[in-house]
Amino acid sequence: MGTFTGPSTQPALHYTDVSTWALGSFAGTAGAVIATAPELGRFLSALLGGGLLPPAQLAAMKTVVSAGAGTGIDYGLGIMRTDTPCGTVWGHTGSTFGHDSYMFGSADGRRTMVIDTTTDTELNAQSPGSNPIKEAMAAAVGTASLTAACTMFGEPIPAA
């Protein structure tokens, strides 16, 4: 385990190398898929573009239910629809120890975005206040996601 220090003498973030951990048993199928960011983008583009499933199956997959009022997220069969200020994107996120992935694209799969981080920013978002540095990193991922979505749709990026 390593320690990164911030401006003070107190440790800012503890680092545990998890690159050799077998995640398949812990994370189930979430840890069983290993892909690069470009591979995730190609997969999502092919899926949303109709290259992997017959139209009826893709339509069934994209039939969604709300994740809850105010979340802006709806879930289908293995895919989520998220409304951004610039347009609606389809995709999924995933987290295991030390890594997060976010892949989203336009409804037709012609535009995609993939964000990978080497920390568990998504898990930290579920327990606010637990680590200010991880919260800042999660906010940066949120900003990057919004910037990518707006760029995909040719829309201006909303002011913070």
Automatic annotation (TrEMBL):
This is Beta-lactamase-related domain-containing protein. Residues 15-121 form the Beta-lactamase-related domain. It comes from the Bacteria. SUPFAM superfamilies: beta-lactamase/transpeptidase-like (SSF56601).
